[in-house]
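Cross-posting from the modeling subforum.

Setting up a comparison between two proteins and wanted a second pair of eyes on the formatting. Protein 1 (sequence, then structure tokens):
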Amino acid sequence: MLSPTRTLRFSALFAMGLLAAMVTQVDAASAQQIPVLERIEPTSGPAGTVVQVIGRAFDQHTRVLLVETQCEVISRLPNRWTVRIPPQGSTGGIVLHNRNGRSMPIMFTVTAAAAAPVIERVEPAGGAPGSEVVIRGQNFSTRMTDNVVMIGSVPMVVRSASPFEIRAIVPVGAVTGPITVRVGQVGSATSPQPFTVATGTAITDFQPRMGPPGTRVTITGSGFSATPSQNRVFMNNVPVRVERATPTSLLVSIPVQGASGPLMLDVRGGGRAQTPAPFGIQYAPTITSVAPISGPPGREVHIIGTNYGTDIRMIQATINNRPLVIRAITPTDITAEIPQGATTGRIAVMVGSVGPAQSPANFTVLVPVAITTFNPQTGPAGTLVTLQGRGFSPVVAENNVSIQDARCEVTSASASQLVVRIAGATSGTLEVSVANNGATRTASAFIVTRPPAITGFEPARLVAGTDVTIRGNNFGMAANVVDVTLGGRPLALVSVTDALIVARVPVGAVTGRLVVTVRLQGSATAASDLQVVAPLTLTSLEPGSGFPGSSVLLRGNGFAQTGTTVTFNGARSPNVMFVSPSEIRAVVPPNAQTGALVVAIPDGRSVTSAMPFTVVAVPAGVGITSIDVQCVYPGCHATIRGYGFNPTRSQDTVFFGDFPTRVTAATATSLSIDLPARPSTATFRVNVRGGGEAVSQPFTIMPR
């Protein structure tokens, strides 16, 4: 028991400790409002330089200062502001300043502005679109993107750049006028003389576009030479004879060995151009087969044959004089779509004015497949959906169902119903194609939901009122549709991304499973409990003083059953016994000194006593201060703590009542024993040879 004087002193020290802790908390809360400047990018540049300011605790009152001169704020993000160095700025520290104070400065060096560009000459003085121009001068940027080159109001493409030379391409649409160069924010320069834009070589059309070898073709355009021999024309690298020429037209003859392809023109001393489409060498078409030989309107068919060419615009295909929609062609295959309203009949093909060729057999037009309803209309990948309609095949393999090009498994089929399993894809219409019987899609989309998944969370243990980070996927980016609960209790959301949620555990929450719910998508439950632990506190020490080897009862909250350590002013206790989450008992270490006690638990948290523990000298004689036991049954290990014991265990005799007890280990302040085999209530009596005797308080050994 503490004396009245010590009790008053203990209460005063405890009150002073609480007051100091409260002041510290207030000071810490205030300090959190002062902005923190972490770094700036870049750290040097001329006036007008745009600088990224990175830090924390920005608010609406925050200003960015360079040597007390306010910088213009261009944009604001939570922890990153973009500012501009003011014209009157000088080298010095950049700081963040608000009502609560200012950050530590970071040095920014204001450099001299770069010199404005100068254009001395342009070589050549004129050229056609597509030609290269060399701009010679000074103060250009070595970064091509920093040099903006214009001819009149039309931008030029910069090919290369150095401080003294820029190479750029004359753009299509350019007209005669001066060339200007603007370098970043430094300034601009204009060429001393205008650049003359010449007429470029271009082909606008050619007719006819199809025919056999020997066909005469008229090519029209601009930039041609009036001398036929100065115009060289090639078709797949084969020379084409030019019969007549003017500056705007050429008459050429397709060579016998020519093959379909574009006509390439090369004007000596001028430019090059190519026909906008190939010239097709065309012979009479033939049809050898049509696949499939039946299908509904909208069905694509392949018309197999010869001499179709490669120009889709020259192909005409009909069924009973009704045009088919041409989708694609090769010289031997036409892909076409059977039109609505078509009737059974032969398919005919014309290539330009050559033909027609007819299919060897009729194409049978079938009733089209159609979907009337489907249910359900939403669900995750793997959902079974029933489609009602007509034109389906009872043979499962002949029905192809997909969503966003992802194949869905057909589990059962009849002429009016399909049951399919939704594939892992994004939302979209369900597309159904039936072998030889057309294709269709649902009128509305099937919404593929993406249920959230929790892959982990951290920390695994925390105190109510702190944040937990939940990792996973499919959380989305909209916090207003996300709910997080712990054992059914909602958590406040701090931030939400598709793969990461930060949520605050409310005061009063208890250990349980985290559940993330994304509205209209689903829910996910964590694989393990989030452990909500009590806050770590230390409220009292009993007694408030003691000698090395004696024990102290520490009261508080949040103590761990294993791994808890106690240090006495830096000296670690050799023995800490867990009594309950609110009580632990620690032995004063041999090298302890008067000072505060620190309790630490395995998760890294610690707490310091508000009052010091006074270390006193070991009393004279022999005394018992406590009995520490692992259990209270016969044979359990126990430690008798006190003072005046002999470190040689044979010199220490221990009795429980009248029964001697074997001493297994001894120090000057502790004796290790095993509880006697006979349950009873008695006192421990320690006799130290040549030292004295001590008796404990009554102790009860319980029967097993």
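Protein 2 (same layout):
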Amino acid sequence: MTPAIAVLLAQAPLPTLLVIGLAILFGTIGAKIFQKLHIPQVVGYIAIGVAVGQSGLGVISKEVVGNLEPFCFFALGIIGFMIGGELHRDVFKKYGRQFIAILFAEGIGAFLTVSILISGVGMLLGMGPAESIALGIVFGSIASATAPAATTSVLWELKTRGVLTTAIFAVIALDDALALIMFSIAASIAGKIIHSGSGGIMAALGHAGYELFGAAVLGIAVGFILNFVLRRLRDRDKSLAFIIGAMALVIGLTMALDLSMILAAMALGVTLANLAPRRSRETFNLVERFTPPIYVLFFVIVGARLHIQNMQPWMWILVVPYLVGMGSGKIIGAYLGARWTNAAPVIRKYLGICLFSQAGVAVGLSLIADKEFHDTIGPIIIAIIAAATFIAEIIGPPCVKFAVKKAGEVGLNVTEEDLMLSYNAGDMLDRELPSFAENTTLTNILRTIAETDAMSYPVTDADGKLTGIITIDELKRTFVAEGLTDWLLAFDLMRPVPDTVTVQTPLDEAVTRMREQELEYLPVIAAEGDTHLAGMLELAAVNRSLSREVLRRQQLADG
């Protein structure tokens, strides 16, 4: 950033609302560019945030990031709520033992590898043994955390479904709780090692238990109340207001009571999803349609708040063992946990590389460490976690995308609306439906339609160009014209074509036009300006095809 721009921004910081608008707009543009490069959208959001934030142009200043902090908490709450919606009791009945084993294996694996590597490198850099060991165990406990936001963003973007996707949701839902417990123990031990006046292991564990248990109770209680309210509501707009209000209430109470925010939001989502599995689908669909701009702004702010350009060179040396230890520990731990519990091969192979992303929880724990060890290792922890988080948020989403693609789970969690967006009219048209030349007699028409179930038939001229439509209603009127069946022609019976689409018309557009005009069939022509008939689009057949494909993909994923 040039000195002139820096001075200008310092003198006249942008209004917060303007920053929000710019962040959502440019974050969306950046995501589309990265998507064209086959890179997950979330990387684009973060990259734009870095470019305009404290490590870049400084458009989003530290003050603005502070003003938007409540919004970030709300976004994290929504992410936790949506993750909770994926955790149904049937999943835990089937996979619960596997998930718990994998969770502890990958968390402890990351803790051990990072602790050993950081302690060793710290000693090589000239730190004392006590300081190096304390630094290692604190870093190890933070390494066990996984950012749910970036990971789930990729899964939702790619519409994934299957055993690997289920395992990812379950592990990241519980990962932060494990990280909080491990950090409480590690911080207490580190305090004893370097004599920072920590309150002891039991006090640390007691506080962690209060945070986790209290958050779970709060989320479950609000979930029961919200389910009671939604069961009696019929207005969808009011339903969304109650849902958002309940989430804001839970998030606000966790901040006031010093509870785990993400865990409370997850508990709220889990409660709703399991109290009313069918009705809650609409609840989560409502929230999902509400959230895209929130996700965009959240990740742009995540990138904007990173401040890494002033790190000393030796600190960057510690970033490498932290990332290597975190990645290798999670991969090895997840593999061993999956193998011990006979989990599916795709979980053994790919779960570990889906757990690289780190953001809110890791940064939050580093801030706590900075307060507890401000005069010793605190500044080192917060600087290195900031740099490591930046790198992890960049490499984590592509790793998730690679894993779910290799597992064959991409595109298996689609709806009929999603599928419709991926097809053209030409993909669904009926090319076998008979058409009639203009000079076809009524006798031949009746003989032909007796063997079909269609309600409309196209009429073409000598060159095969569409000229009209014959419907069953027109044919019924001819039954009173006895003796004219050999004289009446298709030309006499047809009526003007109500509408047409081309084979390249998006299917959702074609279906929308059919529904608006109350048409069961729609002629499909070759191209604009070329009225040669390609076939007929039947609304009922389209709906059957889409339903079958959704069911096929779900069965493939669940199988």
